[in-house]
Automatic annotation (TrEMBL):
Transmembrane segments: none annotated. This is tRNA (Adenine22-N1)-methyltransferase. One of its GO terms (biological process) is methylation. Keywords: Methyltransferase, Transferase. It comes from Weissella bombi. One of its GO terms (molecular function) is tRNA (adenine(22)-N1)-methyltransferase activity.
Length: 233
């Protein structure tokens, strides 16, 4: 992968960045995403924020390699502290982190009077926590996606300012997926259901069906199957 050839995961994230955006990519990892968008003239300006000197050096190398000069600015900072007021950032990408960390970054960098035009978030785990954070902090989902890349399924959340409350099912599975399920979303949850069924069979073989663990898996499996049925109606 490089700035000209993004992974399926990052390419899917890039698709949700608006044309002409002023972008902050937090935890940029070589800055492949903002570099790609700049090289293709899809955005006008980008900040690549990194919390450690090593990754920041990778960003600087990418800037020099593609001669992106003052259009891609590397910043050593913790989370959204990489953004300065005169950057006029309207779009924030946080991709490839755990959901709890994404929520913490958003919380630490939140300003009461400031809402970014768009957040593009790709949590590796705890996606439900990110949906809940958005709902509780003045953002609403405007799109969602699941992309399969090298054996993994990645969820992408796209949010803009707005007020909305989600049900427990919507928080776990995604309101857009429940109304228009993609093949990748269905595959992800069917695979998870199969995994849980396998664990339950092992517990049954060990005569542990009366355990708290078995009952928890049973409830989890039922929740997934109900969501799959609901989405396919």
């Amino acid at each position: 992968m490089d700035a000209w050839h993004l992974s399926k995961r990052l390419a899917a994230v890039a698709n949700f960045v608006p044309d002409g955006a002023r972008l902050a990519d937090i935890g940029s990892d070589h800055a492949y995403l903002p570099a790609n968008l700049l090289l293709n003239n899809q955005i006008s300006f980008a900040i690549a924020g990194e919390v450690a000197p090593g990754p920041l050096a990778n960003v600087k190398s990418e800037v020099q390699r593609h001669r992106l000069g003052d259009r891609l600015i590397p910043r050593l900072a913790d989370g959204l502290a990489a953004i300065e007021t005169n950057d006029l950032i309207d779009t924030v990408v946080i991709a490839g982190m755990g959901g709890r960390l994404i929520c913490q970054i958003l919380t630490d960098g939140q300003l009461e009077t400031k809402r970014y035009h768009r957040l593009v978030l790709q949590p590796n785990i705890d996606v439900d926590l990110v949906r809940a954070w958005l709902s509780e902090n003045g953002y609403r989902l405007v799109d969602e996606a699941v992309v399969a890349d090298e054996g993994h399924y990645y969820e992408i959340l796209v949010a803009e300012p707005g007020n909305v409350t989600y049900s427990a099912r919507e928080l776990q599975f995604g309101p857009y997926h429940l109304t228009e399920p993609s093949a990748a979303w269905t595959e992800k949850w069917q695979r998870e259901a199969n995994r849980i069924e396998s664990i339950m069979k092992n517990l049954e073989t060990a005569d542990k069906t009366d355990t708290e663990a078995y009952q928890s898996y049973q409830h989890e499996l039922q929740t997934i199957m109900e969501a799959l049925v609901y989405a396919s109606r």
